[in-house]
Structure formats: structure tokens, C-alpha cells
């Protein structure tokens, strides 16, 4: 294939239909520009919104679950951790699945799985059945989340990737924040079971109507050993950390942790030494990708730790109902949505580093205000803390995620997206488990020092968790000084899309 170098120095007029913008695909081939990219992505937006909404909507229902099923907080937290564990186990395999199965078929199957899980959860008579339905929903979310980012990198032109990631970030960040508000309203009006019947049908319809398959299927060899190692490694690590809250460092917990770490080390070694890896971990060797990947994972972990603690503290520490607690989180959710969109566009203009500094400063201030909340604190203090955090987190999250994806060459785009999402979900699951442990530790310490007020005990435990979240943001700030930002220059080439040879010239990332 030859390319006229004189053409390569000129940017085509984007309104000319003979030109299509190409963005990275597996193997380095570019893909086509779509006239209405957001409409193409609509079904995936709904699907991911549904999955991420479900990720935190159960936080506000945990007190009700503990009462209805007579389980401890350590057991109830599996409604959150089990969900993220399923996501973390499935995510590393999605990049491989997209090379074998049409993206639209995969997304439709995932949404049917989510709907089935929702039905199981709605009628669940016991906690294990409820958890099984929840894990099915996690598997679905684990599929649609990286598929959305992989599709974005193909559907949108390079100069709009930051803004497109801003919309995706709005879906991902707004849903977990608004989840407790919606859940609180549903619990007050019906019951916690109503949480599981949201948006699945809408997502299925939009996907069927609008989504296309912009991802080329290369059908690489199937490495069964890597698939098994991925499931055992990620599953063992997250399960081990999560069980510490209930079982301490028992032989079972230690075994799970050791197996998780050892198998993950084997998995990483294998991916770096086989011809067709399940996940191309060489992306982590790119410093411009690795640093922001760590930063976005830490900021996401902080968000989930806060969103796990806050709804419970409002109920168990400040004595508010689930409905009121959910409504109090609404202003911060709205602010978060606005700032997420702003952050995507600001990244296109100013890069990541300054946005990270602003976001880290805001999040530290908000986290400190969370720490200051006590049993007799006013609602205004909570609102201030929540809104400030919801301003800060998007500036970190969106800028670092966009910087990480932009740093990779086209052939690593799909794997980079999967690595990012896997890291976030695994970090999030572990941070939720750690927050649960610290909550229990703080309550125990309060009682051991003579405290008798259960509400103050819960507030004390929550403060331990808030300190953990602040420590994660300090790590983000420290990493920002190592942040390297790269820009890719477009060039012209030809493209073969969905098996149809196109002679049009395209701008390749």
C-alpha cells in the first residue's frame, strides 16, 4: 500500500465524505469515521451507565440488606466487592473476545446477562442467590465497559478523543455518584429490590438500533492457560483482601492472597513471552501510559471508598433515612456531571498535569471536610464536602485516562483500554474491601477506648476510611510530577473496514 507523501502533509477537509477519520484498532489498522458517532455509541452509553449505576447503588442498601438477610457488614460488602470482582475477572478477556466475536453480538449478550441477573436479584430469597445474580450483572458490566472505550477509539476522530472520553467519563463517573440517590428514592418508595430493574431494556434497544461493529476481528489463537490464570489471579487477590474484614488473616485468606499474587506474576510473565497474548502488557512498559494509568486507578479507588462510606455514615452515623441520604448526594452528582464534561474538553486544550493538580487539591479539601463530619454536624458540612470532592475527582480521572490512552500506539489501543479498566476495577474492589476493614477497625478502637455510642463508633470508623482515600490522592499528586504527555501526529493511509475494501484516504492516528 502506498501513500502520497504530499497528501500526507495536508489535512483533508473533514466535511468531504471521501475522507474518513481513522482511529486505532487491534493490529494497528485504522477504522472509519462515523457521521453521528454519539448515536452509534448510545446503546453502549446506556449499558455502561447501567453497570456503573449498579456498582454503587447497593452502597445505600447495605444497612437494609444486613437487616433483611441477617448478615454482617463484612458479608454484605460482597454485594459491592463481588460485583467488582466479576468485572475485574472478565475485563482482561474482553480485548481477546473482541478479536473473535462481533462487538454488537458481544454487547447484546452481555445486556441479556445483566437483565437475567436483575431478575434473579429481584426474586432472591436468600443472600447467596442475591449475590449470584449480582455477579451475573458484574460479568455484563465487565464486557460493556472496555468495549465502550475500544469503540470510542475507532468511532471518533483523533482530535475529538478527549471530548469523547469526557462523555464516557460522564457516564462512568456520574452513574456511581447518582446511584445512591436513585437507590435511596427506590428504597423509600418500594424496596431495595427495585434497584435491579433499571435501564437494561433501553440499553438493549439502543444497541440493536444504532451500534455497529467498528472493531476488526483477527481471530488469534486461544490461550486457555492465560484465561484460567487471569481468573484465578485476579479472583484470588480480590477475594483474599475482601475476606479480611470477616475472617482476618486466617489460613484461607493468606492462601488466597498468595495464590492471587503468584498466579498474577505467572500470568504477566506469560503475556510478555507468548506470540498472541490475551492482554498485551507491554503497554505498561510505556511510561507515558503507565503513570497516568496508576493515577486514574488510585483516584477511582478513592472515589469508590468514599462512595462506599458516605451513604452508610449518613444513615448509621447521622441517623438519616436512605431516601434523605440519597437525595443529599444529588447536588454533588450534578456537579460531577458538569465537571466531567468540562475536564474532557479542558484536557484537549491544556493537557493533564495542571488539571490533576487542581483536582487533587479539591479532593484533599473535600476529604478533610468528610473527616470533620460528626454525629451533630450540619447537613451543610456534608454537602460542601461532597460537592468539593465531586469537583476534584473528574479533573483527575478524565485527564489521566485521556493522557494514558493517547500515549499508546494504535496497535495497543484496545489492550491499553482493557488494562486501564481492569486496573480501576481491581483497585476499586480492593479499596472497598480496605475501607470495610478500616471501618470495622475504627469502630473496634472506639469501643475499646470506652466509647458506647454506636453512631459515634460508625463515624470514627468512617474517618479511618477517609484517611485511606486521602492517602490515595496524595499518591496521585506525587505521580503527577512524573507525568509525560505525548501527542500523535496524523498521517494519511488506506483502510479496510468490516471486510469491505475502501479506497478512501483517511487520517490515521
Uncertain segments are: 1-32, 487-509
* Biggest sheet descriptor: 3 strands, mixed
Per CATH, the superfamily of the largest domain is: MFS general substrate transporter like domains
CATH topology of the largest domain: Growth Hormone, Chain: A
Question: In terms of structural class, how would the helical and strand content be classed?
Answer: mainly alpha
Walk me through what this model shows.
With 509 residues, the chain is mostly helical. It has 2 domains: 5-220 and 276-508, Growth Hormone, Chain: A; 221-275. The protein is 72% helix and 4% strand. It is built from 18 helices and 3 strands. The protein has helices at residues 5-8, 37-57, 62-69, 73-76, 78-98, 103-123, 127-155, 161-189, 200-210, 224-247, 251-273, 287-317, 322-328, 330-350, 353-372, 379-406, 413-448, 454-480; strands at residues 19-21, 491-497, 500-508. It has a 3-stranded mixed beta sheet. A hairpin with a 2-residue loop joins strand 2 and strand 3 (500-508). Helix 5 (78-98) runs parallel beside helix 7, helix 6 runs antiparallel to helix 7 and helix 6 (103-123) packs antiparallel against helix 9. The longest helix has 36 residues, at 413-448. The model is unreliable at 1-32 and 487-509 (pLDDT under 50).
Topology:
Layout: H1 5-8, E1 19-21, H2 37-57, H3 62-69, H4 73-76, H5 78-98, H6 103-123, H7 127-155, H8 161-189, H9 200-210, H10 224-247, H11 251-273, H12 287-317, H13 322-328, H14 330-350, H15 353-372, H16 379-406, H17 413-448, H18 454-480, E2 491-497, E3 500-508
Parallel strand pairs: 1-3
Antiparallel strand pairs: 2-3
Helix pairs in contact: 2-7, 2-8, 2-9, 5-7, 5-10, 5-17, 6-7, 6-9, 7-8, 7-17, 8-13, 8-14, 8-16, 10-11, 10-17, 12-16, 12-17, 12-18, 14-16, 15-16, 15-18, 17-18
